[in-house]
Amino acid sequence: MIARLNIRHEFPQIGIRETLGRIDEARIIQPRSSGRLRQPQSNMGATQPPNIDMDSYPSRRAYGARKMGDFTYERGKKGFSDIEAATARHTRDTWTKINNGAKRGNDIVQNARAEMFSKYQATPVFSIIFPADVQVQGHTSEVVGDIDVGDFSIDVETAPSAQIHYTPGSVEIYMRNEGFLYQWLTMGSYDIYA
User: At a CB cut-off of 8 Å and minimum separation 6, what does 53 contact?
Assistant: First the structure.
């Protein structure tokens, strides 16, 4: 009888359990805004209505319509200048008569009569007067004040990222069957069980 080697074996087997990753919750956090507003205002207004100042006195004075103060001033000034001129003329005439009165051919009476009548001869006198223009000064109304342009500011609060709840997946590897290797001897024939 011959000894027979019987072998029975099974390969090892591994098992894989996997869990897929999943997103349980994903949402965007909406931004929130808050603001402040100050209404614009006009603090402006107009001054008195426009008006015109007219001064026609220089023009009227050229035609002789003077104020009493100007009239008395002009007459007083002319009076002083007439007195000075008359005094100078009389002094000059007197010295002329003193120096030349005794000279031959100098007729004092005749000279005085000729001078007197020459003054009273009718001589036309024309004077051209250019009256001054009426002085006109206008005053416009003005817009004064300032405008408040108001203010508007807004603050926006945002989240740095979306809100996400993630369950990660996993892979687990395990030994399902360790396998085996059996060996035995039989005499004469193989073991059919194997």
Answer: 136, 137, 138, 139
Q: Is 194 helix (H, G, I), strand (E, B) or coil?
A: coil
With contact defined as beta carbons under 8 Å apart, do 76 and 148 qualify?
Answer: no
pLDDT digits (tens, 9 = 90+) for 61-99: 777 777 788 888 888 888 889 899 889 988 988 887 777
DSSP 112-177: HHHHHHHHTS---------PPPPEEEEE---EEEEEE--EEEEEEE--SS-EEEEE--EEEEEEEE
Amino acid 180 reads F
Per the listing, tokens 């008569």 go with 97
Unique residue bearing structure tokens 């590897």: 173
Query: CA–CA separation, 25 vs 98, rounded Å?
Result: 140
pTM value > 0.85? no
